[in-house]
Amino acid sequence: MKVRTSVFATLILMSEVIGIALFLRGFFPVPIKSSLASKNSLSDLPAEPLSGSSPNTTRLPHPLFKRVVIMLVDALREDFLFGPNGGTFMPYTRHVVERSSSYSFVAKARPPTVTMPRIKALTTGSIPGFIDVVMNLNSPALLEDNLIWQAKTAEKRIIFYGDDTWVRLFPKHFMEYDGTTSFFVSDYTEVDNNVTRHLDSTLKRDDWDILILHYLGLDHIGHISGPYSSLIQPKLMEMDDVLKKIHGALISKEAEGSLPYLLVLCGDHGMSETGSHGGSSEPEVNTPLVLISPAFKRKVGMEKPGVIEQVDLAPTLALGLGLPISQNSVGRVIPGVFQESSLRDQLRFLHLNGHQLNCLLKDSMPSYAKEAGFEQYRVAEKAHGNWMKLYFEGNTSEVLSNMGKKVLKQYLEALAALSSALSKQLGKYDMYSMIAGMVFVFQLLMILLLAMPEALSADAAVDLPVASALLSLPFYLLCLLLASVHVLVCTSATSSCYFCTLSWGLVFVVVAFSSAMFCILISMAVRRLSLGLKYNGKSPLKTNVSEWSLSELDVLLLAGTVGHTLSLAASSFIEEEHQTWYFLLNTLCLAMFQDVCRKYFREKSASKDEEDCLLPSKDCWNSALPQPDASSEKWLALATPIFTLVCCRLLRSINQTGVQWAHLPDVGHWLNSSEHRTVLSLLTVFCLVLTYLLVQRRCSWVSKVALAFGLVGVYSYRAAVGNVIFPWQHSSRTMSKGTVEARFVYVFVLGILFSGTKDLLRSQIITADAKLKSRGLWEIYSGLVLLASLLFRAHNLPVLCCCLLIQTLISQFIWKKLHYDAAQITIMHYWFGQAFFYFQGNSNNIATIDISVGFVGLESYVEAPAIFLTALSTYAGPLLWTCHLVCYLSSERHRSPVSVGHGCYCLALLRSVPAAVYIVLVTVLRYHLFIWSVFSPKLLYESMHLLLTAGVCLFFITMEQSPRKS
Amino acid sequence: MWDREIRAMVSTHAIMAASVFMATVVPAVFLPGFSVYGTHLSWLYSVSAAVTGVSVAVFWLLGIAPPTKKHSLGYKLSRLCRCCVYFFLSCIFFHFVVLLYGAPLVESALETFSLAVLLTSLTTLRCLCVLGPNVQAWIRVFSRHGAMSVWDTCLQITVACTLVGAWVGAFPIPLDWDRPWQVWPVSCSLGAVIGFLTGLVAAPAWIHHHRKHLTYKSK
Ligand SMILES: [Zn+2]
Ligand SMILES: [Zn+2]
User: Fold this and answer.
1) Which residues of B are less than 8 Å from A575 in CB distance?
2) CATH architecture under which domain A67-323 falls
3) Is the pTM of this model over 0.80?
4) What is the mean pLDDT of residues A928-940?
């Protein structure tokens, strides 16, 4: 089966997208969420189990505690309190732990050990994964069912002092709050004094039920000087004093007859040996948890603290306060806390917890009935019913209490099984799906590579031996083999794989597709090998090498592509990927400069050029005295790379991105400060005018007018939002959202796109006019430019402007003159696109995505357009460059009719090589410390880029179609 | 003839490599606290000075520079002046290129310029010694088939090696290892010097290996 190169490349890319999606599904486990959107409430609590028909009750047992004080010390490591130095660090707390009525535990935090997810875990009892962080980018408030919300609904009065992450997560939940920002990490005294200064007055008052204190100082000390610094001890002693003060106040307030207090001391995460956190090493994960209340039994000596999960605190507190357990909690109650209450209440607590876990299990796992915990819970519930029956019958004998203890044990076992089943699903990679996706992607990549000679031939068509592969015996054998492997894996696997939950029909299609591809791959490889042998006699390799004489530019392009792909293995290179691209782009411009020099000075000295153009080039300038007619062109050609280099140098100072140097001041911040508004306004006007001048030259007059209006609209939108000023507007108008202005621009964008599409369709269906077609194409491109200028922040407009300027100059003076082939042009476009992605201020961190773009022209958050706009503005750089590539290659068709196909193929190859290599790297590094903070965001960026490239390749196909028809 | 030239080249290169080595070791004996990382700039200038001195001396002794027609003192002086101007221009050019690669504009201008001086003394100076301040000759040598003698080929190889070395030397800078050699411009200047030394070794070896295929047009 012969297919055109562009169709072939697009098909491969699209299948790769499916493969990567499967990989992602295995890599990021779906967070366990109850399907119900609502939150748990008291009214839908289950009835107390009871066999027989006596009146049963849905009541919750009485709350155990009246007041709760939660003292959260950020980055409190377990050994700060329980370790050998604990006695000197926190003497009072240590005394309480050893002698007083308290329970102490080592609570294990789950990675990512970062404050915000940990606060979520403490309050919701769920385990927020990486995907949660991404999903909740648009709303800082915690919408999930959580303890704070439940407490507020139950009209508990909550006071909060400390890290303002809480205030952002729970807006309007606190009766009184004072948030301190953790922005200045070097400050470790003020942050804590801000919390403690409220303490005396608050502790005297009686008008609150829950007091939450979040101390940041210790974490800051850790970041500055590590866990062994001399600052640690004073800080811990300060914390100890705070705890002593709270404890004393609570004891003095203690009234006879009322419910007791509960004082909780905990850490959100630990601290690594270097003082940072985020990973999964032991000292980062282990945090102390101390529960102090007169309701507990008095201790007699130091015991080794038991190990629990951090999420266990949420259900314990909920039940202790008489609140429903939040819906997505995977924790189980800490049994010791309830030891002093009656057996009936204890059983009831466990029953409620079990019921909630069971509901969550049913919701989140299709094969929940297979889980051991499910059955155990049912048995325990039944036994509980029987026990209740005896209890109501007034039985008070030894039998009853023994039976009750047995039920209790059954419940605890069931809870443990349920909780572990739920959290196992979270913590594990679904290796089977990952490997399946990976194999799939690699098969496609191999086919893509093997087809290279055909795809880049003058024919631009790839011969895929589909029919022969489908009819061959190995195909059926392979199908059988893969299907049996699938059955084997799915029946033996202990954890649930996503791939196994797919329906059989779908799996069979995948298996057939995969084995067909394998057969195609083999037959293509065999064909290539035999062809090579026939062609070159004995040694095919050697002749190939001598035939392909690579220019310096080719060497650079190849080395750059390979080098960049390899650099993805190091986390710092991912964090600072922009540096790699700037570096490569610079070298590319210098290499182009050298090529230009070679071209224009060749006449003089037969052929001139060497690895480095640096030395001669400088003097080429002065020495050569060219003919007067070609001279201006020559000087422009020589100046273009220099100009590009200077442009790139200026652009990189607009936005500092990355991690290591992100804090350095940049031009963007300078422009955005309010005293430089005039400069920003002038710059915006200049950029918009320049954009107009650069784009309009190849548009029809209708589009020219629309473009002009659109750009005026962009300026008035920026003025409406308050970024820039109108010269005649002196009174500061109230800031609006600029919805009207933005919609005004959208209308023109749609108009230009429509006119472009119309031209394209007309050229393809009716007239086959190449000129009309290239105009249509350019109009679509200019529509995109207009949209990008609306979405870009005002200080980023120079990036757009320079992008257009560089495109115009380079294609005019260098690419057209130097006769690069389609592959070289494509690689250069790709590199420029990548560099512009970072010039815009993007990075490989999720946090740099500008979400506000999703609201441009919309009154409220609407998911589909918001995602579309955000993706478009984030990838504007690469998209504009690929669109320019289409325009450029199709306008150059007279020289080589197949260049569009070649370009499409190269683009597919350039995108799939790093993507395929990267998923392997991520799989290998899946236990790396930075897997969630560095590698996973990059994985998402890579996949998104792949998806967009597949979309652009579709565009390539439509471009390539017409010459065949006409 | 081949053997004689290659032997001359090997001994020249050995002297140069030794000068780089001495420039690293000797000041450490006399100056307390001198080290490659610690007092990087003084190391850098000491290497530049050593290479400059040795190249000028060796090439002048060998007499490779193209024979000049006039022998008047004025002509020689103007030649010398032009050499100095070229040297300075080349420093500025390298400084500009390094700035384009993203070196901070103001903050570490001295470091950047020192790197430019080092690169100049490793590359441009050699061109000046071998070819003289003759732009046409430079253009010829640095075109693909422009080498007309063993020394031209050698020049191509060493210059390319030095520049590639400096280029590669920039790679470790973004890594978060916090090593002393990651500080700007240590890795780049180390890369350049290592590249230069590699070039000194590689050039005679390559020429020796390819001596059958190398054909030069007559001078
Ligand atoms: Zn924290
Ligand atoms: Zn921290």
Assistant:
1) 174, 176
2) 3-Layer(aba) Sandwich (3.40)
3) no
4) 81
